[in-house]
Amino acid sequence: MVKKWVYKAAPPQEDVDRLMTQVGVSETVATLLAQRQITDYDEAKQFFRPSLEHLHDPFLMKGMAEAVDRLQEAFQRREKILVYGDYDVDGTTSVALVYGFLKEYYPNLEFYVPDRYKEGYGVSQKGIEYARDNNFKLIISLDCGIKAVDRVQQAKDWDIDFIICDHHRPGSVLPPAVAILDPKQEDCQYPFTELSGCGVGFKLMQGYCRKFDIPEQKLFTYLDMVAVSIASDIVPVSGENRVLAYFGLKVLNKKPSHGLQALMNLGSGISKMTISSIVFGIGPRINAAGRMAHASGAVELLLARDKEEADILAQRIETKNEIRRNFDTNITAEAISMIENTGGVQAKSTVLFKSDWHKGVIGIVASRCIDKFYRPTIILTESNRKATGSARSVDGFDIYEAISECSDLLEQFGGHRYAAGLTLEIDKVDEFRRRFNKVVEERITEDQLVPRLNIDKKITLDEVNYKLYNILKQMAPFGPENMTPIFVSEDLKITERPRLLKGEHLKFKVVQDGTQQPLEAIGFGFGQYFDLVNSGMRFRMAYSVEENIYMGRKSLQLYVKDIKFEE
Q: Which of 126, 178, 285, 559 has the most CB atoms at less than 10 Å from its CB?
C-alpha cells in the first residue's frame, strides 16, 4: 500500500542551537528533542534521566483527599470493599494493582470484573446487585464509572459508596460518588490529564501511602502493571506516563510479578521488554481472557502468588489466546474476501455483517481490514438478536461523528474519534450501511484515504553510527507523543544481491554516495520490492535505527518503514 510521507515541522532554529550548545548533542539529536517540545538543558535532563521524584503529588488531583479518607473510614469500620474493574488490559491491571496492594494491609476485600458478553462495559447492574447481596459498603471502580450516573445512584440508594477512578472524558452530569478521581474533569487541577486507568488507581494508592506513612517503595513494585496498562491502552508516553512507563519497564525486566513473568516466558525470544513488545506480546494475551472467557482469569494470573500457580494460569490464557488467534485469522480472511468479492475495494468505507462472527474479535478484524484497505470500517455480528459491532477509523477522520449522523437507526453507540461500538436491529443493517457510506463519502478527503508515515528528519547514512544509536536508546520508552524516530535517506543503492527471507522479508546492504561503509537493512513484509531493489535503481528509504545481535555480534541495522524509487 502506497504511503504518504509527512515530514514533521522543523523546530525553531534557536531551540536547536541552544540544545546543541547546552546539551552537547548533534544537530539531528537536537532537532529530535525540539520536536518533542524539549528546548533547554533542564528539560533535556528530565527527559533523559527520569526520576520517581518527577511524579506529581497525588493530592493535586480533585477528590483525592475525600477518596483516601473514605478508604481509611472503611478500614476502621471493617467494611467490605469491592474492587471493580473493566475486562480489558487497563481494567485488569488496575484491579490487580489496587486489590493486590490493599490486600497487604486489609483483608476484607474482593475484586469483581464484569462479563464482556452478559454485562457489557463499565459498572453493571449485576455488579452493584452483587455488592448489595454480599454486604459491600464501598466500591472502588477502576477504568470505568465516570458515566455510570444511574448505577452509582442505585448503589447509593442501597447504602453503598463509590470511589471512581477513571480516565475517560466525563459527561455533563457526574455520578453521585463520594469521590471521583479523573484528571479529565474540567475543574481538576492535576498537571497531567493522560493517565491510564491503572495510572489513576496507582495515584490513589500513592495518596494512601502518603497519608498513612507507608513507604512508597512498596507500591513501586507494582509499576510493572502500570507500564503494561500504558502500553496496551495506547495513552501518550509523555509527561508523568513516561516516568511511570520508564520505571515500570525496569520492574518488568528485573523483577516482574509472577503472572507477568509467566506471560513473558510464553513470548519466548524477547530479551528485553519494551512498550512495543507489551503491545504485541503481553497485551493480547491478557485481553484474550476477556474475549474468549471471563477476564477474572487475567486478574487471578496477575495476582499469582508463586511461579507454579502463574505458569498454570498463564497456560490457560495462552490456550484462550490461540483460540482468539484462530477466530481472528479466519474471520479476517472472510471479511477481506467479502470486500473483494462484492466490489467493495473501491468504496470509501466498509460495513460488514455476518451473524456467526465471534463478538470478541470483531474490533481486531476491523483494524486488520484497515491495514489492508485503509478506510473507515465497521464489523458487525449478531448478539442477543441484535447486530452489534466495532468501528475503527483512519488518521484524521472522526468515525464517532459519522456514526452519530445515523443515530436514529441505532439502539446505542459510544466511543471516540477513532474507535466506537454500536448496536442496532438486524433488519436495519442495510439501511445503516447505505447511510453511513453516504456520510463518509461526503466528509472524507482523498488525502485521508492514504496512510501516512510520519518522518522526523532527513539524514545521510554517515550519520548512522553507535553514537547516534546510543542517544536514541536513551529516548525510550517510545509510544504515542514519543514515537521511535523515523529517518529518511535519499539516493541509495544496494552493494550486492538482496536476500529474500521466508518469501516475504527483504534483507540487503545499502550505501549512499559519499558513505564508506554499507549498512544492513531489513524490510519485514517488503518481499515484493525484491526485483526493483535488485535492478540497481536508486531509491529513497524511510527507516528506524536498531541494533541487531547475531551469534554474539552486535551491529546496527536499518528497519525499513517504506521505500520509494526514483522516477
A: 285
Neighbouring residues of 113: CB distance < 8 A, sequence distance ≥ 6: 84, 85, 86, 87, 91, 92, 95, 290, 294, 295, 296, 299
pLDDT in tens, 439-448: 999 999 999 9
Q: How far is CA 201 from the centre of its chain?
A: 17
Q: Which amino acid is at 346?
A: Q
- Give the span between the Cα atoms of 422 and 407, in whole angstroms: 9
The torsion angles phi and psi of 144, rounded to 5 degrees, stand at: -170, 170
Chain center to CA of 151? 28
Q: How far is CA 535 from CA 20, 81, 507, 532, 541, in A?
A: 41, 68, 15, 5, 16
Residue type, 281: G
How would DSSP label each residue in 122-160? SS-HHHHHHHHHTTEEEEEEES--TT-HHHHHHHHHTT-
**Burial group, residue 463, by CB count within 10 angstroms (0-12, 13-18, 19+):** middle
In the structure grid, which three cell numbers stand for residue 18, read together?
A: 541552544
CA dist., res. 287 & res. 114, Å (int) = 14
Dist CA 31 CA 456 (whole Å): 9
**Of 423, 389, 414, 399, nearest to 348 (Cα)?**
399
pTM above 0.85, yes or no: yes
Question: What's 256's DSSP letter?
Answer: -
Q: What is the pLDDT of residues 27-72, one digit of tens each?
A: 999 999 999 999 999 999 999 999 999 999 999 999 999 999 999 9
Per-residue three-class SS string for 40-72: CHHHHHHHHCCCHHHCCCHHHCCCHHHHHHHHH
- pLDDT of residue 542 exceeding 70, the answer is yes
Verify cis geometry, omega within 30 degrees of 0, for the bond prior to 477: yes
What counts of helices (H) and strands (E) characterise the chain?
21, 19
- Find cell 472472510 and name the residue: 334
User: CB–CB of 23/30 below 8 Å?
Assistant: yes
Cβ distance 231 to 283 under 8 Å?
Answer: yes
Grid cell in block for residue 69: 479518607
Q: In the chain, what is the greatest distance between 2 CA atoms, to the nearest angstrom?
A: 78
CA pair distance 200, 88, nearest whole angstrom: 16
